[in-house]
Amino acid sequence: MLMDDMGWGDLGVFGEPSKETPSLDLMAAQGMLFPNFYAANPLCSPSRASLLTGRLPVRNGFYTTNAHARNAYTPQEIVGGISQDEILLPELLKNKDYASKIVGKWHLGHRTQYLPLKRGFDEWFGAPNCHFGPYNDSFRPNIPVYNNSEMKGRYYEEFEINVKTGESNITQIYLEEGLDFISRQATAQRPFFLYWAPDATHAPVYASKHFLGKSQRGRYGDAVMELDYSIGQILERLVSLGIHNNTFVFFTSDNGAAVMSGPRQSGSNGPFLCGKETTFEGGMREPAIAWWPGRIPAGTVSHQLGSVMDLFSTSLSVAGVLPPDDRVMDGLDLSPVLFNNSLLDRPIFYYRGNQMMAVRIGQYKAHYWTWSNSWEEFNKGINFCPGQEVPGVTTHTQEEHTMLPLIFHLGRDPGERFPISVLSEEYEEFVRRATAVVKEHQERLIPAVPQLNMCDAAVMNWSPAGCERLGKCLKAPESKPWKCDWPH
Amino acid sequence: MLMDDMGWGDLGVFGEPSKETPSLDLMAAQGMLFPNFYAANPLCSPSRASLLTGRLPVRNGFYTTNAHARNAYTPQEIVGGISQDEILLPELLKNKDYASKIVGKWHLGHRTQYLPLKRGFDEWFGAPNCHFGPYNDSFRPNIPVYNNSEMKGRYYEEFEINVKTGESNITQIYLEEGLDFISRQATAQRPFFLYWAPDATHAPVYASKHFLGKSQRGRYGDAVMELDYSIGQILERLVSLGIHNNTFVFFTSDNGAAVMSGPRQSGSNGPFLCGKETTFEGGMREPAIAWWPGRIPAGTVSHQLGSVMDLFSTSLSVAGVLPPDDRVMDGLDLSPVLFNNSLLDRPIFYYRGNQMMAVRIGQYKAHYWTWSNSWEEFNKGINFCPGQEVPGVTTHTQEEHTMLPLIFHLGRDPGERFPISVLSEEYEEFVRRATAVVKEHQERLIPAVPQLNMCDAAVMNWSPAGCERLGKCLKAPESKPWKCDWPH
After folding, report:
1. Is A202 a known active-site residue?
2. A10 among annotated binding-site residues
3. Which residue does chain B place closest to A11, by CA atoms?
4. Which residues of A touch B387 (CB under 8 A)?
């Protein structure tokens, strides 16, 4: 269950003051909470590509080289998608006859060859891109919603989102799609993989009528409440089907809360610095809960440094499938953590595009590069760290610190506000450790061909498969590719 | 149980990432959690005076008029203390034959006439002032530790705090004093009031040997862990004595975490803005838990806006004692909240000295004055909002906004980062409501004689009662009173 732009601080169990996530808080009480869990990237598409490949974006190709250290994703103009060279989780699970379904946002490329049913999923209900809009179909089509390999309609058309009121029943549809899939597999006694990826907490945030106005936090909170309710429903379904003791469930989010969007359209990163798009903790620290009654001890907290990429390796391990042995994997098999409460030593790397910006080892984090967003954007009022500013840390120019990295102790200073003195023994000792870890990482690193460099208006969702039947095919403009502009 | 400078974000249940407060988290699971609970003041002494009087500092005299909107407290030089005109909680509880003890920090004046045994307490073990030091006794005496009305020694002398290692067994002593008192009253079947006020999380933070180095958060976390352990011991003692179903227990803190002290000496205010000394949420929002098995429903969250002053009124109510009827009370009787999960409509006022800076009503907060700390201090490196800066909000000069208050919706925006547009209907509507509430408050307000205006080196703890017996009397300098300087 992968949320969209939901922040670490959005869950009651992680300190959201309104405490409006009873299902997730219960899930934590029945499972294992991970306060130190990370996205593979501070932006959606690369993070999602890493979840399904178990590899860093720089290795799986979900990055750009158009400019230095830029976040890239898959808007409608993107030409690329997830490479055929990558092996996706549902493709491997086929070895054990798993049925796989993705419900919600795909985001690994919307052109035909990149879609989920081409990459190991048996079913899909959802959209290939973000639900931005509504668009005037002449310059930009609205995003299609697929049922398997054909579109069923488009956001803002057949699948309404009222941008003014925030009303949409799409989360309810996604919930039903998830429940139905689970029930069918349970009846068929077939092992299954459900990738439940709703997008209601991504701007423009939405909720169905029943939840609108219910939250103390406004519309964003309404969306969280509906997702929380839905997660409760999914867990209950597992219990009522009697398969809860045989199902590994994991909840997390794709990147930090989009704090630049303001409180009406974004969530909370709790005590952490900045948010989405940045390599500060607010950009990549995620809420995370593992649940498997009878196997994962209830009510435990694991301080394991975890990553969405670990879900790849862990899922394979749980399913009894061997991971690929012909490539470097970044994900870890968390089984010893989940089942024996072990702690595995491993670093967390924070990338922005092709640049490793920072590394966390234990409680320490070293920033080799810092950047919030550019002065140009900032001066237009776009602020990736609203209300937060740490001099020399939340820099508006790309600042290199390779020779003297900025070091924080995230246990004492989760907000990355107090760099450790470069004159201290503590500093020297950690830099020595970090240097060795980074050196090893970089020596083994073979960057993939970047998939997110080229854009073209001709590739937008003008005529998705199935459009004929609906009479919803649109005419694409002539192909005029350009190097995508990635401003942050 | 009143903590010293502990922040809202320091408890696992309020999202501290290291989750190192198992006893408090259990207390919350067995009791009622208050995410919207407030100190009466962003500084220690006034907040503590309000707890014991049920009245705002401006009404009970614990404030200064030496300069506009300044926080004042009771350092050793202070001439004043809690006024004889005030009625203290233990004085009233005497009506029902309660035995009262304070363990730990008093802070309502250290001159003989102001000490706890003069003001309704039957017993005291602790200190009248903060444990700053160590001092050279010739210019400044170390703070005495009293047992009832006589000193037993001084901090850094008989009661050691190793500033270098952070080791001190004082919390253990305070724990034993508390447990012993509880057990004696239970044996005597006498109703009791224990005011347990340890100071280990106030700089210089300390912990005993067993806890030093145990926390993932460093020394501050060690202190929190020891307090958490101690609180667990106190609750367990109530259970083992069989009086838990007949005892109202409340946990909170005196003001926000002292974030200006840096992460080695201070805690976390979670998602809130700034800290101690300020009237932003980080200065006055407190962790709070009520516990009374069998009477307060387990595992509940109350969104009641609460105040430490309510503990005065609620304690009286629970003890069956009538509150004073000859004066304005600011505390509410929270019984309907605790026992019926009701919500009482009430504003929270945020004062700095004699100035009402802000008011919260429901989810909205209006700032009429803003100030973090002065440019003079800030330029010396003292920062009350480290890493946080909201333009026009965390101002370094005292800024008046009376005509156009800054309004925040604390549900959507707990970090006070996004002022609501003055052009919106929402703004206009709330300002109308707030204006009426503030007007009523100010019309009823009769400020007390300020107690915290005068200082004098002669009144320091040179020769506390009992010093003769210990051979620890020091010679006071000649009296030369001055108007205390309150820089923030």
Report:
1. no
2. no
3. B15
4. 273, 388-390, 415-418
Which region, left, alpha or beta, applies to residue A327 given φ > 0 means left and ψ of -120 to 50 means alpha? Answer: beta
What lies within 8 Å, CB to CB, of B204 at 6+ separation is B131, B132, B161, B163, B166, B265
C-alpha distance from residue A262 to each of A78, A360, B237 (Å): 27, 28, 47
3-class secondary structure, B9: helix
- What's the length of chain B? 488
Q: Are B24 and B294 in contact (CB under 8 A)?
A: no
ipTM (interface pTM)? 0.95
Cβ-Cβ contacts under 8 Å for A403 (sequence gap 6 or more):
none
In the numeric block, the tokens 């040179």 are attached to B462
Over residues B422-440, the mean pLDDT reads: 98
User: How many residues would you count in chain A?
Assistant: 488
Distance between alpha carbon B81 and the CA centroid of its chain, in Å? 16
For residue B51, give how far its alpha carbon lies from the nearest alpha carbon of chain A (Å). Answer: 23
Separation between Cα atoms, residue B425 and residue B402, nearest integer Å: 18
Residues B360-394: tens digit of each pLDDT: 999 999 999 999 999 999 999 999 999 999 999 99
Instruction: Give the burial string for A439-475 (b: 16+ CB within 10 Å, else e).
Output: eebeeeeeebebbbbbbbbebbbbbbebbeebebebe
Residue B322 pLDDT greater than 90, yes or no: yes
DSSP B205: P
Residue with tokens 């249940």: B13
CA distance B210 to B213: 8
Which residues of chain B lie closer than 8 angstroms to A12, CB-CB?
301
Give the position of tokens 């080289």: A65
Q: Which residue, among B106, B107, B97, B99, has the nearest Cα to B125 in the 3D structure? A: B106
List Cα–Cα distances, B30 to A106, B268, B301, B310, in angstroms: 42, 24, 11, 21
Q: Which of A9, A217, A417 shows the shortest C-beta gap to B15?
A: A9
B419 at the A interface (CB within 8 A)? no
Instruction: Give the model confidence (pLDDT) of A259-300 as tens digits.
Output: 999 999 999 999 999 999 999 999 999 999 999 999 999 999
Locate A113 and state its tokens: 């060859």
Predicted local confidence at residue A136, as pLDDT: 87
Mean pLDDT of B405-416: 98
Instruction: Give the 3-state secondary structure of residue B237.
Output: helix
Instruction: Report the distance separating Cα B346 and Cα A15, nearest Å.
Output: 24
Q: Which pLDDT score, from 0 to 100, does residue A44 have?
A: 97
CB within 8 Å of B418: residues ≥ 6 apart: A262, A263, A386, B408, B412
Q: Name the percent of chain A lying above pLDDT 70.
A: 100
Per DSSP, helices labelled H in A260-404 are 281-284, 309-319, 335-340, 375-379
Tokens of B426: 């929402």
Question: Please, what is the Cα angle at B107 between B26 and B358, to 5 degrees?
Answer: 75
- Residue B417, chain A, CB below 8 Å: the answer is yes
Q: Do B411 and A301 touch (CB under 8 A)?
A: no
CB A410 within 8 A of CB A346: no
In contact, A288 and A382? CB cutoff 8 Å: no
CB of A282 within 8 Å of a chain B CB? The answer is no
Residues A355 and A369: their CA atoms lie apart, in Å, by 8
Amino acid at B349: F
